Every structure is written in C-alpha cells, then in structure tokens.
Amino acid sequence: MNLFSYIELLINWVRAKTNERQFLIFSSMLVGLTAGLAAVLLKTFVFYIHKLITYKYNLPFQYYFYLIFPMIGILLTTFVVRRFFNGKLGRGTANIIRSIVKKSGFLPRDQMYSHIATSAITVGFGGSAGLESPIVTTGSSIGSNYAKTYHLIYKDRVLLLACGAAAGIAAAFNAPIAGVLFALEVLLVDASISAFIPLIIAAAVGALCSKIILGEGILLSFKLVEPFDYYNVPFYALLGILAGFLSVYYSRMFTRVEHALQASKRKPYSKAIRGGIVLAVLIFIFPPLFGEGYESIQVLSTTNPQELFKNSIFRFFLDHEWVILLFLGAVMFVKAIAASVTINSGGNGGNFAPSLFVGAYLGYIFSRLVNLTGLTALPISNFTLVAMAGMLTGIFHAPLTGIFLIAEITGGYELMIPLMIVSALSYATVRSLEPMSMDAQKLAKKGEVLTLNKDTTILSSLKTERILETDFQQVPLQASLGELTELVAHSTKTIFPVLNLEHQLVGLIFLDDIREIMFKTSLYNELAVKDLMRKPGTIVSPNESVHGIMKKFDETMSWYLPVVAEGKFIGFVSKLNLLSNYRSQLIRTSRD
Fold first, then answer.
1. What is the pLDDT of residues 430-476, one digit of tens each?
2. Alpha-carbon distance 509 to 459, whole Å?
C-alpha cells in the first residue's frame, strides 16, 4: 500500500467515527493542508525558476536575453495546455463562480495541478501576471474534488471549495484572515455563521504551511516604519477616490486588450509569439513589468525608486525627480496591458499581484507629488501600502480582503483606519462606475450574471430550454374568428401565437380578449385574427438568462412570454413553470 491508500483509510475511519459536522471540520483541515502545500510548491517553483533565469552569468548583453524569456514562458504554457489539457484551462475566479452556480460546485480534477504547472512556467519566465488566481483555482479544485470523492452534499461541497481557495490565499501571503474574507466576499453566495469555522481552520492550516516552509524572500512582507497620523486623513480620502478611478481604468483596459486578443484569428502559437513580442517591448522600456512585480513593490515601500531604473533606457535621467515620477506613472498605466497580454495570449496568471503592483505605484506617486508641493510631508511607505488595498478592493470588489491583507502582511494593525478609508472610498467610486467586478462582467456577457445571494443563484442555474413550453395551438394570420374558435375549443391554453407563412410571430391572441365574441356565430366570417390579436410587446431568445426573463416578467406583468429564435417562433416561457422549476431546484439544492 502506498501513502495515498493509508490516507484514504484514515479518512474513511474518521468518517465512520464522526458525525457530519465533525467530518466537515476534519475535511476542511485536510483541504487546507493540501491547498497550502500546493501554494507553497507553486511559490517555491516560481522563485527558483526566476532566480535561475535572472542569475548574473556575466554574459555580454545578458539583460537583453531576459526579454525573450516571457515569450518562451507563454509558448511553453500554450504547448502544455494544448498537449496535456485539451486546450482548456478554466482561468480566473469567474470560472470558479460559474462552477458554483452552473455546475453544483464541481471543478475538473485536472485543475488540481494544471494551474500549478502552467502559471509556474508563465510567471517564472517573467510573464507580467500574478500567481494568486491560479492558487485559488487549484485550492478550489482540491476542495471540490475531495467533496466529490466522499459524496458530500452541495452545501458542503461549495464550502470545501471555498476552504481550498481561502487556504491558497492564506498560504500565498501568510494572511489567514484575508484568505477567509476573500472566500466570503468573492466565492460564497450564501454564507452562514456555521461556514466560518471550516474556513478559519483551512486558512490557518494553509498559512502555517507557508509560515513553516517558505522563507521571507519568497513571501511578500513589509515592516511599518512610520505610525498613522490623523492629520493625513484628507489625503488618504483623496487617495481612495483616485484608487477607485484607477481600478476602473485597469479593469476596462484589461478587458479591452483581452477582447482584442480573443478576436484575433491567429493560431495559438502565433498569438503566443505575438504576445511575447509585445511583452518584450514593454519590458524593454519598463523593466519593472518583468514577473510578478513584488520586488519592485518592496523597492517602492523603501522609497528607493532609482533601483527600478538599473536596466531601463531611462537610467540616464536618474537625477531628475520629475522624470522618475513620469516613468513610474507610465509603468502604473501600462501594467494592465502587460498583464492582459500575458494572460490572454496563452499564458496563465491572475490580476491579484498586478492590482497590488499598480496600487503601490499609485501610493508612491501620489504621496511623492504631495510632498514636492511643500503642502505637507506624507509618509511615502504608508501611502504605498494603503493604496495597494485600494486597488485590490477596486478591481475585485472585495474591500475586507484588501483591508486585512495589507494589515496582515505589514504585521500589525497600525494602518487600519487609513486602510478602511481608502478601501471604502475606492469601493464606492468603483461601484458608481462599474457595478460589477471584472469576473462578474464576464459572467454577465455570457448571460450568467448573478448577484451573490441564494435566490438569484438558483435562478441562474436554471436553463431556458428547461422551462420552454411548445404545446401551443398556432393560429395562422389568415384565420377567421370561426377558425380561431375551433382551435380554442381543442386547447387548454389561454394564449395563442399568431404566425405568418414564414412561421414568424406577428401577434398574440388572449382568451380573455375574445371570450365575449367567440360564441357569436354571426361574426365568425366577419372578424379576422389580424383584427383581434395584440402585437407582442416583449420576446425572449433561447439563450437568454432566466434572471433576465424574470426581469421581463416583472416589467410586463405577463404570465407568458414568447420565445423567438432567428426570427422563428419556438414556444413560450411561463412564469408559473419557471417558479415551479425554481422551487424544485431549491429543494434539490437543499438535499444535494
């Protein structure tokens, strides 16, 4: 027997000796341990790849060799995905949310390891993206497949999925509270107090993995050197608003580049080469874009930006303060393009690290500009750190995660008040311009938008074709009242579609509209259907979300809506049938 067989025997023995709640808590510990070790493995793997390719080999023009490494990473990732994972990877938290809503919390088994391999190659070779999103997907898949193996119900399956994500974030930053809050804010759609204990256990175990195994050189960490001064509150407030606007810019620019690359008809390897070339040019001009960027964040937090110029074409202007700030500002705005190119040309990564990167640059530039005006002397390192929380909040719509992540990686809560101010104002600003996060927008464009509550989640899980009714008597446009009465006599419905010769819907007949005249035989040949029908006010397409259909029911006060595909009538959706299916799904979800 191998190690895995002994582990399986242990799990089965524990399950036999415990009740459901106790086994769930035990399972959360195992999922947290596995997800934490996976995060440690990925972080370590990337650290040593990065160290290997950036080692000083004393070769002529060695710096310029770095420029081809991101392209190599993207090409290798594309090859691995196509060769071993059938070209499918399932990137981002949108993929996880979709699995919760549409697939009952089931994630593919290969996602337990596919993201470790591919993101390590992409980011390790200098791709301008983060590892946290792949870590979250890996941890979520571990939790989902563990629950599937032991046949846990839907509620427990989704909770263990979230436990894996929480443990991954906790291990990536040694920040267990941030891990728990990320799972609650971004993934869980119907969290209750009972969910906290498994999440806390999983996050604590994940954080312990990184605390014990990973060194300080691998984890992102800071030490506060300046205390909070309440006189700076107005500047923190302004920083929060700026972080909100910059978050909107980042999201829109990332999405725009993503759409441009997805619209490209180039083959995968051609797209990877093209993206690699663009990334090489960007890194040549702005070297801090190489890799995750955490090194440059730490440089900024120590207020020593000149270090970022060492290999830049701007290195000859080190003595000019305004040139340095312009350079940093350009890096800040270009990061969204670099991250999107890395991910959408074939690489694998996420926006967690880029959001912290952009936030650090914003905080440094803002505080440095204020100091140059002579108005006051702001603590640059504090503003650099606090702005990171503002950007993370704005991009992911997760204010609590942003607040506690920075609080934890700085080793204290001295900045709690400015963190709350900046995150709250950033979130309010973003919500006024972009009501949904980037991931939610992706779901919305595919007709899968949801608000994170149980009712709309269940509605989103229903398929339009499941509630489609086709057993309706169809009335020809040329029919008379007499012919219509004959059709009504053989039907139990109260609504009838009127179609032309091309099978297109031209009107609707309601039984209530003709009830008083349908037995007046003298009118049978005098009145035509076209004189009795109503024009259809609202129609539904077959691929329309049930959430959107429900909204149309509310707006029109109707009980039936016609469904039209490519101009042809195919049936009706009934509010009664929709609500009946909703009730059945609610019962199934509670039991599954």
1. 999 988 888 777 776 665 544 445 555 555 656 666 677 777 778 88
2. 29
